[in-house]
Each structure stands twice: as C-alpha cells, then as structure tokens.
Amino acid sequence: MPAPFRRIKPNRLAARREELGLTRAELAARAGVSERMIFFYEEGRHSPAPGRLDQLAKALGCDSGALTGAQRCAETLIDLRYAAGLPLDRVAELLRASSAGRELCVSAAKVAALESGRHVRGRGWKDARTTGKLLAPLAKVYGVPVRMVLDAWMRTRTGEPAPQIPGKREQDPSQAALKTWELLNERQRIYLGEIMRDDRMAGTEMWMRRVQRLPVPRAAEWRKLPLTLKAAPSLVGYTRLQERLRRGGVHDPGAGQTVHALERRGC
C-alpha cells in the first residue's frame, strides 16, 4: 500500500532555492537527488517521500513545514510524521515495539487511517482509554513532547473525544450538572465543551510526565486555561482553545461575555 504524503508546494521550494542563490543542480547535489527530480518537484509533477522531504529541507536550511505550508502550532499527525522523516511502515514497526502498539495491532494501514481522520478498524480504537496509551509511544517515535502529539491528534480527529489517561474512569455527570447543561445555549455549550476538552488534554500530558518521571507543576498552575494572548494574532497566533472556537465559528468579540455567563452559572 503506497504511503500517503503531504505534498510540498512547488512555489515554496523554488522560492527558497532562489532566495539562497542556488541552481537546481546545486540543490540536487546538496539533497542527494538528480537535477531532473528537482525540476519535477518545482513543476509539481512529483512530491518527495518523507525521508527525501527531510533531506530537501536540510539542504535548504529550513524545516519541512516551510516547504509544505504546515503552520507551527497547527501540526496534524501527518505533519509530525513528515517532520520526523518517517514512512508509514517504519512508524508502525516502531509503535509495535510498545505494549500499546501491540494491543492495538498497529499497522501501516491503521496509521494512515489515524492521520487522515478516517475510521481505524480494529479492537480498541474507539476506546479513548486505550488510544490514550499510544500517545507516549508516538511522542517517542516522532521525537516531540507528548502534548504536541495530543494537540496534533485532536486537530486531525476533530469531533472525537480526547484520548484519556489510562486507568482513569469517567464519572457519570450529576443531576445538577445535567440541569445546568440544559439551561445553556448552543454557543455556551460549545465553549464549555472545548474548555473541558482542553482541561482533559492538559491532564493527559501531566499523567504522561509522571510516567516519564518528569517534573509536574501544581494543578493550580497547569489547569490555568489561556483564553487569549495579549498581542496581535498576526504576531503570536491563537491559543489552542481559540483555534478550536474559530473552527466552530464562535470565536468573536463576544467571547468574554460567554465566559462570564458560564461563570455565573457555576460552570
């Protein structure tokens, strides 16, 4: 099964090469490919596989996202794989070395489905507690923090519950909580749902840090939720919560009023 890939943007490749004053032949020599292949890349006839993309980026003194258009802090699972320069079969092989990978019977086809947002066939893939066990192995394979993998997972598989902390069981909501939920309007429900998801994601990261014997800050610190940044979005971008609210079409100047309304209801 051929590995799906994130295609480079030909104009980005050509612009970066010209910015460095390199000919196609010179770039080809740096990247270890033929001049003809550089021509094909810049014409959009071919796109490099993960390992070759990594070589091209190094030859041009940039990261792979500069050639594919992937934005920082907005990576998906396939972006992480490409940044690591790994093909699907190699990722599957490395994941199967972990207990979570063996439990989920990870294969190249399943990794492809996971990072494309499609349904992953097999036992355990619908169980958020089981998939949560895969976060640490993925982080190790891609050489990134667990939090980055979790963020990329949620960007890739929108609308799904966040992977849960292994061994932690969810409690059924109380009658008071259900009554409060019924009183919320649709906008408030979206906000509260995304806030709860963000808190769960942070909790998962802290659990992973404990497993890896890394220092864990006090809950009063890591449970603080950044709703906004005091700088222009064009300079610093958006917080993770803002990104999801923007996708939901409810991130606008009325954000403060919605948050205050949730506070008044004790949410």
Structural notes for this entry:
The chain has helices at residues 10-19, 24-31, 35-43, 50-59, 64-68, 77-84, 88-95, 99-103, 108-116, 128-131, 135-142, 146-156, 175-183, 186-211, 219-222, 233-236, 240-247, 255-264. It is globular, with a radius of gyration of 21 Å. α7 packs across α9 (108-116) and α14 (186-211) runs antiparallel to α17. The chain is mainly α.
Short summary of the structure?
This protein is mainly α and 267 residues long. The protein has helices at residues 10-19, 24-31, 35-43, 50-59, 64-68, 77-84, 88-95, 99-103, 108-116, 128-131, 135-142, 146-156, 175-183, 186-211, 219-222, 233-236, 240-247, 255-264.
Q: Strands, helices and their partners?
A:
Blueprint: H1 10-19, H2 24-31, H3 35-43, H4 50-59, H5 64-68, H6 77-84, H7 88-95, H8 99-103, H9 108-116, H10 128-131, H11 135-142, H12 146-156, H13 175-183, H14 186-211, H15 219-222, H16 233-236, H17 240-247, H18 255-264
Helix pairs in contact: 2-3, 4-6, 6-12, 7-9, 11-12, 12-14, 14-17, 14-18
Strand coverage percent: under 5%
The overall pLDDT, averaged over residues, is 80
Distance between the termini: 48 Å
Unreliable stretches covering 5 or more consecutive residues: 1-5
Number of helices: 18
Structural class: mainly alpha
Principal-axes shape call: globular
Strand segment count:
0
Oligomeric status of the shown chains? single chain
Give the helix proportion (percent range).
55-70%
Query: From the alpha-carbon coordinates, what is the Rg to the nearest angstrom?
Result: 21 Å
User: What string gives the helices and strands in order?
Assistant: HHHHHHHHHHHHHHHHHH
Describe the main β-sheet briefly: none
